[in-house]
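Progress note, sequence design subtask.
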């Protein structure tokens, strides 16, 4: 009788160890996925910022913000006065604009002769340097790049 109860207890302990290991592994995969999304956002923000900078160098002005000069426009979205950053694709500064998805979206704004390109980020998985932080329309924390001009 004791032999069966000992093996039963050992089996429970082994199952508990496996459950903890699987839970930890799942958290690790989720964290790695979030970090890869943030790295992708940073790369796309840099590409958009470089394209806006090149547009400004060649045209001595920034692409228009069709939403309003004091608000963020959603990159690629159509507004009554045009598509947000559509000039970059039509002028061949970009092959195509990033498409909004459930993973990420990009925003554009011009304030005080500076262009801002931003994307919301999950600060739980990434530490954003203060100089790269700005806030969106609803106060969400955003990774924000500015033009170098």
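Output:
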């Amino acid at each position: 009788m004791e032999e069966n109860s000992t093996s039963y207890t050992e089996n429970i302990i082994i199952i508990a160890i496996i459950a903890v290991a699987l839970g930890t592994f799942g958290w690790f995969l989720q964290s790695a996925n979030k970090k890869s999304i943030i790295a992708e956002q940073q790369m796309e923000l840099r590409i958009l910022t470089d394209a806006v900078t090149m547009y400004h160098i060649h045209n001595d002005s920034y692409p228009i913000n069709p939403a309003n000069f004091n608000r963020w426009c959603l990159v690629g979205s159509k507004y009554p006065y045009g598509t947000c950053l559509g000039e970059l694709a039509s002028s061949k500064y970009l092959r195509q604009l990033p498409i909004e998805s459930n993973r990420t979206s990009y925003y554009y704004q011009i304030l005080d002769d500076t262009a801002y390109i931003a994307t919301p980020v999950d600060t739980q998985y990434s530490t954003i340097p203060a100089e790269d932080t700005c806030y969106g329309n609803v106060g969400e924390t955003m990774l924000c790049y500015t033009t170098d001009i």
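The mean pLDDT is 78. Work on this subtask will continue into the next period as scheduled.
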